[in-house]
Design brief:
With 254 residues, the protein is α+β, with helices and mostly antiparallel strands. 41% of the residues lie in helices and 12% in strands. The chain has one domain: Class II aldolase/adducin N-terminal domain (L-fuculose-1-phosphate Aldolase), CATH 3.40.225.10. It has nine helices and seven strands, in the order H-E-E-E-H-E-H-H-E-H-E-E-H-H-H-H. It is globular and about 55 Å long.
């Protein structure tokens, strides 16, 4: 049966207003990832914790990111079990990566993972992200790396994912892609926008002349200069992003 033929799932009357708002924001985030060209068909995943629970929301496996709605998101527990009826399955790799981060990091209310071309290109470079741009200046003060272990299907990999991420908000998965965490969907998006932009600048700069690295003495100022920056700027940008989405791909709030 084609996914488009399946009956819709309408859980709104079964959940709190707070959870519904998280669903709306997460569906918007999926569509924004598609709008910015960071999606990989139906693959990769974004998750958000359901407030006050150990449950989280993930994409219905088989829908394109620009098709996802608030009501179609699948709610699962930390063991991967559905806790609300859904016609859809979930991506097993999405569960492996996201469940352990949600369990380990109480501040990781949203976890965003991409396979963008620029991100994968930098993830394949031995030196990783270089200090070449203001985007990198912000990212490097909270960036970790995780070595490639094949498709993320083995739960034995989870402790290493958690250890490598640590308390940082940006993770480059070697030979694989990018990951960001945030207190909100706005935070996770803003972080990914910066990380993706830093990777794009690096790939383009490497195609040109001699590279000019930001000096270490300047990089050392990043934690202080960006301390109050993250959530505030993300919250300023988010309403505008939703207005753009409403113009180009409305319907995520259904």
């Amino acid at each position: 049966m084609h996914l488009s033929k399946q009956k819709a799932v309408w859980p709104r009357d079964q959940i709190s207003a707070e959870e519904w708002q998280v669903r709306v924001d997460l569906a918007a985030l999926y569509r924004l990832v598609a709008l910015f060209g960071w999606d990989d068909l139906i693959f990769t995943h974004i998750t958000a914790k359901v407030p006050g629970t150990e449950h989280f929301l993930i994409n219905p496996y088989g829908l394109m990111f620009d098709e996802i709605t608030a009501s179609s998101l699948v709610k699962i527990d930390l063991a991967g079990n559905k806790v609300m009826e859904s016609d859809y399955d979930i991506n097993p790799a999405g569960f492996t990566i996201h469940s352990c981060i949600h369990a380990a990091r109480k501040d990781a209310m949203c976890v965003l993972h991409t396979h963008s071309i620029n991100g994968v290109a930098v993830s394949a470079q031995k030196a990783g992200l270089l200090p070449l741009s203001q985007f990198a200046f912000i990212v490097l003060q909270s960036l970790s790396y995780h070595e490639y272990e094949g498709l993320a299907l083995d739960p034995d990999e989870q402790p290493r994912l958690v250890k490598d991420l640590g308390e940082n908000n940006y993770l480059i998965l070697r030979n694989h892609g990018l990951l960001t965490v945030g207190l909100t969907m706005a935070d996770a998006f803003q972080a990914m926008h910066r990380l993706e932009a830093a990777c794009m600048v690096q790939v383009r700069a490497q195609a040109g002349g001699e590279l000019n690295h930001i000096p270490t003495t300047i990089l050392e100022r990043a934690k202080v200069e960006t301390r109050a920056d993250r959530s505030y700027k993300a919250s300023l940008a988010w309403p505008g992003l939703l207005r753009r989405l409403d113009r180009r791909n409305p319907g995520y709030e259904l």
